[in-house]
Amino acid sequence: MMDWFSEFLYMDGFAVWVWSAFGVSALVMGLMVWLVIRRHREALRLVRRYHSDGGSR
Amino acid sequence: MGKESWRWFHRFGSPPHVYGLADRMVPWFAILGLACLLTATVWGLAFAPPDYEQGDGFRMIYVHVPAAWLSLFVYVLLALASAIGLIWRMKVAHAVAIAAAPLGAAFTFLSLATGSIWGQPMWGTWWTWDPRLTSQLILLFLYIGFIVLNRAFQDQRSGDRASALLGVVGVVNVPIIHFSVDWWHSLHQPATIAKFGAPSIDTAMLIPLLVMALGYKLFFAWLLLRQLQAELLQRERRAAWTKALVTGPGGTVK
């Protein structure tokens, strides 16, 4: 089991490249999710603020 | 076609209709997209057979290729939305285009970054001014140009029109990217899957790639709809429908 896992992590000598490619992708996609959700929340807050001020902004 | 058959199209011109539709679809795209991404990652990393030449290094295909496909797909979508916005003056279409642009730019960046990571061990270089790589870099600049141009005007309509024009003209780069590997001598390998005839990739490697590509598309659809909702809220913050969205039954803001 440990041998299989070590082999899996080693990636035939390409570990650095394969894990970097997957890592960068996961990082960027995670960042995209966070930024998009945050932007949607901010837009909702903007609408709430606008209408709670009676449309003065 | 009669007026009735165009009604569905006209409904997409209504921001509250699109906002509500997006609200209902977002959870489905999110759940299905993440499920596909997770399945394909495990499948591609642990169960797909190694390549006879590149060994396990080929597994980078599972993040590089879907990102590259999506970068082109998103640009075509952006150009179509821009064209619809210009021709029919549909506000929602312009909102779709500007909502898609940063996502397309992120996928283009990912395709370049993962391609670079692949290039170093396989070609011995991080970057080369190869036709495929250069045209893909131009795509990234087109996305950035689209966003900057859209936000450069005080008047939103002027920004929409100017960026839509760039979006439509820039679509000429898409076939250049796709066929660059056939038209010029390129270090980049030619088409493996999207070509005439059978794909030159084993089915055991192809299926997880297709699942991953589907996952990327669903992931994009999820984020596009959320981006679109945010864009519509910003643009329509003074409209009655956005007030109805944030007010409770007593008319007080939630």
TrEMBL record, chain A:
GO cellular component: plasma membrane
Keywords: Cell inner membrane, Cell membrane, Cytochrome c-type biogenesis, Membrane, Transmembrane, Transmembrane helix, Transport
Membrane topology: Single-pass membrane protein
Membrane-spanning residues: 14-37
Function of the protein: Required for the export of heme to the periplasm for the biogenesis of c-type cytochromes.
Similarity annotation: Belongs to the CcmD/CycX/HelD family.
The keyword Cell membrane belongs to this UniProt entry's keyword annotation: yes
Protein name, as recorded: Heme exporter protein D
Subcellular location field: Cell inner membrane
InterPro entries to which the protein is assigned, alphabetical: Haem_export_protD_CcmD
Protein's GO biological process: cytochrome complex assembly; heme transport
Automatic annotation (TrEMBL), chain B:
One Pfam match: Cytochrom_C_asm
Keyword set includes Cell wall biogenesis/degradation: no
Topology relative to the membrane: Multi-pass membrane protein
Highest taxon listed in the record's lineage: Bacteria
A GO BP entry: cytochrome complex assembly
The family this protein is said to belong to: Belongs to the CcmC/CycZ/HelC family.
NCBIfam families in the record: ccmC (TIGR01191)
Function: Required for the export of heme to the periplasm for the biogenesis of c-type cytochromes.
Protein name (database record): Heme exporter protein C
Taxonomic source organism: Natronospira elongata
Primary gene name: ccmC
